[in-house]
Specification:
The protein contains three helices and 14 strands. It starts with a helix and ends with a strand. It has 254 residues and is an alpha+beta fold.
């Protein structure tokens, strides 16, 4: 029997071809690559620093603080912008007051261009001004060049001024001394040495000699009493009177 030499020759080449394969597809190489990958992952996890629970809580607190503080800060800024004109006005007034006040010990103080306002028993307003006011104790105020403006009924008014004055705030009285001058809006004026004003009852009186002139004429008297609530004025004591012939005059000589 004859053998085919070509078939015999092809057998070894087929065996060699079956034994040839890629190294990267070999099972040994795959296992080696897998182990290397696991080692790299382990090293990466080992080098990575995971936050602790305390650090996580602190981070959450910072987020909450930022969440509430930023809107509050914006609201405060907006409120300050709205209120700034009023704040500026109050600061300016406070500076003016401080500039007029100089302290002279714990129980007295001076104030330049002082102004005091109030209302009488019938809710009519009055105002007292002076070039200088000195606070004496809790209720007494001594004044230089005081001027009292009193509002009467029917739009009338009275102005009284003097060289010196003592204002008792709690009692609502003003005592005037030195060159007292009274002027009323109906044309009456009175000159005298002293006068006392009850601001609550709207009464003006003087125990000293006065000289008065007005629509009724002229009058010199030892003292006078004026009650604006009753609409009455009395000249008291001996004196000299020169009357105008005015039947509507309501002044009385007593």
């Amino acid at each position: 029997m004859e053998q085919n030499p070509s078939s015999e020759a092809n057998k070894p080449s087929e065996q060699n071809h079956s034994q040839i394969q890629r190294e990267d597809f070999s099972s040994g190489n795959r296992e080696s690559r897998r182990k290397e990958l696991e080692l790299l992952q382990q090293e990466s996890r080992a080098n990575r620093k995971l936050p602790t629970q305390e650090e996580i809580d602190q981070h959450h607190k910072k987020i909450l603080i930022a969440k509430w503080s930023l809107p509050a800060l914006a609201g405060g800024l907006l409120l300050s912008i709205i209120l700034w004109p009023e704040i500026s006005h109050l600061v300016h007034e406070n500076r003016i007051i401080k500039s007029h006040i100089t302290h002279r010990g714990p129980e007295s103080s001076n104030m330049e261009q002082a102004i005091y306002r109030g209302v009488d028993s019938r809710n009519r307003s009055y105002m007292i001004t002076s070039t200088t006011a000195r606070q004496i104790g809790s209720e007494r105020i001594d004044m230089d060049q005081p001027i009292a403006d009193l509002h009467l009924s029917n739009g009338k008014w009275v102005e009284v001024r003097a060289d010196k004055g003592t204002f008792m705030q709690d009692h609502g009285t003003l005592d005037l001394d030195g060159h007292v001058f009274l002027y009323r809006s109906d044309g009456l004026f009175i000159n005298g040495l002293t006068a006392s004003i009850d601001l609550n009852k709207n009464i003006i009186a003087s125990p000293n000699w006065i000289h008065a002139e007005g629509p009724f004429g002229t009058q010199d008297a030892e003292s006078f009493f004026m009650d604006h609530n009753r609409g009455e004025m009395l000249f008291i004591g001996t004196g000299r009177s020169l009357r105008n012939h005015d039947e509507d005059s309501k002044e009385k000589l007593k």
